[in-house]
Amino acid sequence: MIPGQINVIFGWAWMCVGLILGLILGLRAERDQWLGGYDSLTRRYLRLGHIAFIALSIINILYGKELGSTDIPPYVITAGSPLLIFGAAGVPVTCVIAAFFRKAKYFLPLPAISLLVGIGILVIGFMT
User: Is the distance from CB of 84 to CB of 7 less than 8 angstroms?
Assistant: First the structure.
């Protein structure tokens, strides 16, 4: 499978997971003290994870679609594609885990840096 195509398929599938999480959160949203109340850190991490699922899925889809319009060498594309998938999977999953185990938040820079490098590859490809 072509690296960009993997990002598109992953993006759409991962977005479904984010929508399911949003559905679960939305069904319980009216309960004032659910997960410690609206302003609790637990609920904030879960909301952040839900948004990260969807936003980072869109970034993966765009990445996969834009690869064809750049002159990025194949070996660089092969590196950038899994970096974006790792980042898109890692940020929301870490947020969900951090909602219940606070020290997990210290792992957030790993997938975030992965996303930064992956997107940086695409940006450099557009500039060449």
Answer: yes
DSSP letter at 108 equals: T
First to last CA, the chain: 25
State both tokens at 20.
């399911």
Tokens of 100: 């219940």
**What is the rounded CA–CA span in Å between residue 61 and residue 10?**
8
Is residue 53 within 8 Å of residue 85, measured between CB atoms? no
DSSP 38-100: TTSHHHHHHHHHHHHHHHHHHHHHHHHHHGGGS---HHHHHHHHHHHHHHHHHHHHHHHHHHH
Span 5-22, pLDDT tens digits: 999 999 999 999 999 988
Residue type at 49 in one-letter notation: G
- Count of CB atoms within 10 A of residue 74's CB? 10
Do 61 and 12 touch, CB atoms closer than 8 A? yes
Domain boundaries, the chain: 3-127
Segment 111-124, tens digit of pLDDT? 999 999 999 988 88
